[in-house]
Amino acid sequence: MSKDPERPNVVLILADNLGWGELGCYGGGILRGAATPRIDAFAKEGLLLHNFNVESDCVPTRSALMTGRHPIRTGCLQSVPAGFPQGLTRWEKTLPEVLKANGYATAHFGKWHLGDIPGRYPSDRGFDEWYGIPRTTDESQFTSAVGFVADVVEMPYIMKGKAGTPSENVRIYDLEQRRLIDETLVEYSKDWLSRQVNEVKNPFFLYHPLVHLHFPTLPHLNFAGKTKHGDFSDSMAEMDFRVGQLLDHIDSLGIADNTVVIFASDNGPEFRPPYKGTAGPWSGTYHTAMEGSLRVPFIIRWPGHVPPGTTSNEIVHVTDIFSTIASITKSPLPNDRPFDGIDQTPLFNNPVEAKSPREGFLFYIKNELRAIKWRDWKLHYVWEPQVNKSSGKLESPYLFNTTRDPKEETDILAYNTWVAQPMIKLRTEFEKSLRNDPAPPDPLKSL
């Protein structure tokens, strides 16, 4: 545990498919059937971002978070079934590897989704220990599916592992465990945090990727029926409670003053009934290039550094979190590869006056450039406002101003062709960088 303000502890809590409009502090809460008092109170203790942006899917976002590089560089383009090549290549340098080289203790309790074979588990990629699921929580439905045949698929397991030893199966991940897993993950994180404080003198990095609210969105039985608005709202109430448990434990250990705590989501809201979420004023869900896919919750608390009760609408991207945590912890980055993340520490320290050094980014789904976001503008090259409702590549792209038209309903490119200049410049510079840093080949295409 670190008491050195130059090397603070870091706790990163990542919700799964939590839309921008779900939490009370983002305009949801009781309007969505479940109050979120713990996260709402946490937001008042630090900085809440209105314009934090992620990738289109679980794997791309998590790879960007762990490497500070766009998935179009790393080849982590999509979620794929068990038994197929997936995850980060050994060449990629992960955030826990960077922190570990700087003397940090590291742990992962939750959903990984960046590799499911020896050499690619969390304990192989910089984490001292881990417990959770290697892939997606979709798989918890396998054993309950009508007609399920066990001998033709790799069974889903909850796993655990420690650095230097093989990871191992703990138990089958089924619908019963789906209801229990977030409770279990909190217990693992609390135990690990206690051990760092009582036994270890090093600063630490805890990565706690929740399973909620990913479908099937099923609450712990202690929360079933709690909101009287169904499983989704009950699960949101549980998620809020679990985050509160982690925050309370950090406070009880007396380490809050020198611990950076970040709460964010990996993707926009669920689109599958009956677990459909909401992005509030924005249109779309994950798997699209709409603002509802890009923008998700993000809150950071860092006492003495990040002013409490503040908000910002400056653009921040998920790759920036990698670079910012490296900067906060004084952890040097390798100089043999380009990083897409930008250090946002100045913005986080002074959100009222500071501006984000990021003006925009390119948004891909798999290998296809779908949109460019620049300042308050979004240029769509492919129009897919809802999942599987694509009209294909546009001969004339659609342009929207996301402040004046948050639902992205009225194309105004014909009246604002000037915007194409800075956007095409952004695209040209990024694509030039990609040519000098080609991604590994898509493993699915070589099968």
UniProtKB/TrEMBL annotation:
Q: Which InterPro entries does the record cross-reference, listed alphabetically?
A: Alkaline_phosphatase_core_sf, Sulfatase, Sulfatase_N
Q: Which CDD domains did the record assign? A: ARS_like (cd16142)
Cofactors needed by this protein, per the record, are: Ca(2+)
Task: Supply the alphabetized keyword list.
Answer: Calcium, Hydrolase, Metal-binding, Signal
Q: Which Pfam families match?
A: Sulfatase, Sulfatase_C
MF GO annotations? arylsulfatase activity; metal ion binding
Domain annotation Sulfatase N-terminal: ranges: 8-329
Q: Which family is this protein grouped under?
A: Belongs to the sulfatase family.
Q: What is this protein called?
A: Sulfatase N-terminal domain-containing protein
Q: Which organism is it from?
A: Daldinia eschscholtzii
